[in-house]
Amino acid sequence: MVTTPLRTTKSEEIFTAAKKLMPGGVSSPVRAFKSVGGQPIVFDRVLGSHIWDIDSNEYIDYVGTWGPAICGHAHPEVISALKAALDNGTSFGAPCVLENVLAEMVIEAVPSIEMVRFVNSGTEACMSVLRLMRAFTGRDKIIKFEGCYHGHADMFLVKAGSGVATLGLPDSPGVPKSVTGNTLTAPYNDLEAVKKLFAENPGEIAGIILEPIVGNSGFIVPDAGFLEGLRLLTQENDALLVFDEVMTGFRIAYGGAQERFEVTPDLTTLGKIIGGGLPVGAYGGRRDIMAMVAPAGPMYQAGTLSGNPLAMTAGIKTLELLQKPGTYEYLDNITKRLSDGLLQIAQETGHEVCGGQVSGMFGLFFTSGPVHNYEDAKKSDLTKFSRFHRGMLEHGIYLAPSQFEAGFTSIAHTDADIDKTLAAAKEVMSNL
Ligand SMILES: Cc1ncc(COP(=O)(O)O)c(C=O)c1O
């Protein structure tokens, strides 16, 4: 376990060099710690629920490479399956039986998915599903929710969450108004606002896309009846309902949030866990809609590395591991201990917080709450969060470096990990 202060000499050296080589020194913005301040740590290796940085500090990890590491990092069975697959080559660019195996597993697991197309990232899955929504309905407008993140494609960079929220970027330069003009937005959990948008744009809305549990403005759950209400509204307006389960798929339940909430969308996007730590995304849904996708139908979408054997192998092995009885009970129990413990410690130490968890996903806001949407989330005391984040880091606990990101646990997290985390939180919160 790390004791303060952290050794950071090598991290600082490498990150300083990285800043000269790559914008902001990173390959993806939130990693740069801009919203929490201080130097990011540079990772050296990961195993199970733990990570080690380049200065040999050890941490308990609650980021899990932003969700994929649900079985713990570098699970030995995933690694040995990958080693075996490697001997057959890294990419075929042609049909391979592993695609069938993972497709069957996804179709069997996720209630809405009758056919699936593999891509290489969550962003790619979401931008492709949007094209499909438009192709199928012949309509251009879509509804998304404030603070929901669906990857970095132009038409989604409107009131987006994740790094866009973290860096306080409401939009991005370079995104033409003509592209975002068809993206309508509503506050999360606000059915009336959605009704109004349908009324104001009759026959023009292709559908609604949302995170069925939000993880990109911090952790926000849908109010009772919200998902059901969206299902009804889309049906009444001949529009499609799309769940972006890039984060929640195979995490909230084996069949995703749609299994847990018993609301079946028309289309679903996936990513993260189905790649088992390798780059994968997917979109799928009703057979009649998926039949529009090339080469079965006219909607074009393609990918050189899509369905590549290594990514398929890591995904298959990860899903096999998740199928073991008790997986989701374990995730739920361990994450509840963590979340309840954090809330209790905050209360005992006199901090206004709110938060919660579902399965292996959790969040904590520094505001009394309740948090139903992004506007509520923004009331969180970000300075306090930054101090909390740094304090936890110095105690060997690696949390997402932004208030506007959910936390993740894995089946590799142990009661001992939770005990250590809560002990650290007690010390840090007492001195905030
Ligand atoms: C809900 C959701 N959709 C889409 C994406 C984009 O996925 P990727 O980063 O793999 O492009 C993310 C990424 O965090 C996400 O959380």
From TrEMBL:
Q: Could you say which EC number(s) this protein's record lists?
A: 5.4.3.8
Under the heading SUPFAM superfamilies, the entry gives: PLP-dependent transferases
UniProt cross-references to PROSITE patterns, sorted A to Z: AA_TRANSFER_CLASS_3 (PS00600)
The subcellular localization recorded is: Cytoplasm
N6-(pyridoxal phosphate)lysine carried by residues: 272
Task: Read off the Pfam families from this record.
Answer: Aminotran_3
Q: Which InterPro entries match?
A: 4pyrrol_synth_GluAld_NH2Trfase, Aminotrans_3, Aminotrans_3_PPA_site, PyrdxlP-dep_Trfase, PyrdxlP-dep_Trfase_major, PyrdxlP-dep_Trfase_small
CC per GO annotation: cytoplasm
Q: A Gene Ontology biological process annotation?
A: protoporphyrinogen IX biosynthetic process
| Pathway membership, UniProt | Porphyrin-containing compound metabolism; protoporphyrin-IX biosynthesis; 5-aminolevulinate from L-glutamyl-tRNA(Glu): step 2/2
A molecular function (GO) term: glutamate-1-semialdehyde 2,1-aminomutase activity
Q: Name the coenzymes or cofactors required.
A: pyridoxal 5'-phosphate
Q: Which reaction is this enzyme known to catalyze? A: (S)-4-amino-5-oxopentanoate = 5-aminolevulinate
| Protein keywords | Chlorophyll biosynthesis, Cytoplasm, Isomerase, Porphyrin biosynthesis, Pyridoxal phosphate
Q: Which HAMAP family match?
A: HemL_aminotrans_3 (MF_00375)
Protein family per UniProt: Belongs to the class-III pyridoxal-phosphate-dependent aminotransferase family. HemL subfamily.
How it assembles, according to the record, is: Homodimer.
| Database matches in PANTHER family | GLUTAMATE-1-SEMIALDEHYDE 2,1-AMINOMUTASE, GLUTAMATE-1-SEMIALDEHYDE 2,1-AMINOMUTASE 1, CHLOROPLASTIC-RELATED
Q: What is this protein called?
A: Glutamate-1-semialdehyde 2,1-aminomutase
Which organism was this protein described from? Lyngbya aestuarii BL J
